[in-house]
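Re: the 149-residue chain
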Amino acid sequence: MSWIILFVISWIMFFLVVDFKSLKYTIWTGILTAFMEFLVDMLFIGHNLYKTVNHLFEIRGVPILFTFSVPLVMGVLSSQYYPRKKSYRILNVFVLSILFYCVEYALLLRGDLIYINWTWAESLTIDILTIITISWFNLVVLDKWRESL
């Protein structure tokens, strides 16, 4: 049930705050984020570091409703609201990483995510590295793409 709730909340949030005019550019950050989440989860679940339970649809242990909710929506919205001031970019990485970990922690509390050979520190580290990658993509790839059009 948690996976469905996350899916619904994510998409409600998306439709409330998305800028549809810039979606043709920012959707790529969402797709990259969803792909990275799927790949990391598939690998780590395959290595028996953690597992997911109580999901409806899954591919190799990764809940599809999750992949196409929080990561996709977070990627698009983080791209649309990426800070232009350099001083806020580092803060942005940590805030988004903590927010993503809070979602993970809620799944842990509900029993839908189970750590086997994994810890919160490892998870937060992966979250930070992922958000840094997404920030780089926003800054380098999307900004140059927008400028060329």
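Residues 2-13+27-148 form one domain.
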